[in-house]
Amino acid sequence: MRELSATVIANRAHNLMLDYIKEVTQGLSKMSINRIRRASIEKDEWDALKAFENVASEQQKIYAKTFCKPALKAYEKKKKNFDSVAAHISYDIIPKILPQDDVFNLPVDENSLLSEQVQDNKENIHKISRDFRLKATELYLKIVKEEFEFQKERLEKLLEDFSQDSNEVLPLTQIVNDEEPFDDEENINNNDDDEEEEEIFTQ
Fold it and tell me: I need a surface site. Which of 1, 10, 27, 151 has the fewest CB within 10 A?
């Protein structure tokens, strides 16, 4: 009887320890699973890239690098931004780009008003700020969604125009969506210049 009780106690202690370890390492487990999935996806992408380079013509490679690669980067950036804003809103969290505190912090002289008036005015100020953040969040979500859909349609159009025949000459000088193909480094430099100009005008 004592041996049976000791076995039961040992099993219960073992199960409790396993449950505790699973609970504590739950976040680490999810992170590891996501890393494994990402590594698997990156491997598949690398294999697909090598397969493409082996069969693609020089014209197709230039088209992919000049048009498709920048469009894909822009699409991924806008998709990540849209998913982030949508996730913030789904959890009732204000996006970081919007003010977290009251936008309209109007001065209220409590010595010149009744306590009821002070409380009423503060509540109205808070309500105006809350309504502003709500409308701003809805507008911001609309903007990032439209940006994402624009880049998605642009990328799909480029992929549709991509020739499946390696012997076909692609129109590399064409303008996509009335825009010149852009270079990543040039785009980064332009952003830096814009930030410098903004700092100058705000000083």
Answer: 1
